[in-house]
Amino acid sequence: MIGPQGLGPRALELSDEFSALLSERLETQIEVIPTGSYSALLAAVEERRAALAWMPPLVYVDAREVTPIHLLAQSVRHGARAFRGALFVKAGSPYESVADLVGKSVGWVDPHSCAGHLLPRKSILDLGLDPAVHFSEQSFIGSHRGVARAVYGGEVQVGATYVHVGPAGEVLSAGWRDIDEDDAFRILATSDDVPADAIGATDAMPEELRRAFAETLLELGRDEEASKLLMELFQAVAFEEPVPDSYDVVRELRDGIRLL
C-alpha cells in the first residue's frame, strides 16, 4: 500500500502501472493500493492488511514500534536519501518571515507527515512560537500537492511541504513541483535533513518474496522507463540499501515535540 499522492484519477492509473511492473518482475501478482491518508496507511501496516508499504519516515517509525517491519529499501530523490521540511508562501505575498504570519492560516499535509507537518512545526517551536497561538487556523489537507494548491489559491497563507536542496542552496524539487512553473512560491524556513521514504514489508509477505522484492527495487533505479514511472508516482528515481538506524532521528523528533 502507498499513502495519498494527490494525483486524482491519475493516481489509480499510475498505481496500476506500478502493479503491472512489479508483478512482471517478481512473477507473482502484486497490487498497489493508494490509501486516503497516512493514518489509513499506518493502520493497514499495523493490522497486516498490507504485505508491503511505501511509508513516509514517521509512518515507518510509528509502525515498527507496534508490529515487525522488514525494511527493504529507502527511496532516492535527486541523488539523496534525505530531504527537508519547508514553510512556503506565494511569491508575491508580503510575508518575509514566520513571525509575519501571526494570525494567518497554515496548511499541513497530514499529522504523520514529516516534511508536511512535523519538521516545519519543530522549526516554528524552535523560534519560540506556538503554532496553536501563532496561526488563526490550522488545516490538514491530505497531500503535498493539495497544500500547494491551497496556498496558490489563497485558501491558506502558508503551507508545509518537502524540499530537496542542492549544494548551492537551490531547490531541486518540492511538493509544489507541478504548480511552480513560474516561480509561484517562496520558502520562508527549512528544517534539518531527515531520511527519505521507507519501503518495508510485514510478516504477511514470505521471506523469500521479501528478498526478491528488495532486489527488484534496487534494479528499478537502473531502468529508464521504471525510473520515469517512479518519478511520476513517488517523485523518486531509485532505491538504496536501507539503514534502519537512520530513522532514529525521526523518532527523537516526534518524541521531542510530544513533550513540548
Give an overview in words.
This protein is of the alpha+beta class and 260 residues long. A hairpin with a 5-residue loop joins strand 6 and strand 7.
Outline:
With 260 residues, the protein is an alpha+beta fold. The chain contains 9 helices and 11 strands.
Question: How is the secondary structure organized here?
Answer:
Blueprint: H1 9-26, H2 38-46, E1 52-55, H3 57-64, E2 70-76, E3 82-90, E4 105-108, H4 114-126, H5 131-134, E5 137-140, H6 144-152, E6 158-165, E7 171-174, E8 185-190, E9 194-195, E10 198-201, H7 207-220, H8 224-234, E11 238-240, H9 248-259
Parallel strand pairs: 4-5, 4-6
Antiparallel strand pairs: 1-10, 2-10, 2-11, 3-6, 3-8, 3-9, 6-7
Helix pairs in contact: 1-8, 2-3, 3-9, 4-9
Radius of gyration: 18 Å
What structural category characterises the helix and strand content? alpha+beta
CATH third-tier fold name of the largest domain:
D-Maltodextrin-Binding Protein, domain 2
Number of helices: 9
Reported for the largest beta sheet, the result is: 7 strands, mixed
Number of domains: 2
For this structure, what is the CATH homologous superfamily of the largest domain?
Answer: Periplasmic binding protein-like II
Number of strands: 11
The residue fraction in helices comes out at: 25-40%
Q: First CA to last CA: what distance?
A: 32 Å
Mean pLDDT score, rounded? 87
Quaternary status of these chains?
single chain
Low-confidence stretches: none
Sequence of secondary-structure elements: HHEHEEEHHEHEEEEEHHEH
Beta-strand fraction estimate: 15-25%
Q: Shape, please?
A: globular
**What's the CATH first level of the largest domain?**
Alpha Beta
CATH architecture of the largest domain: 3-Layer(aba) Sandwich
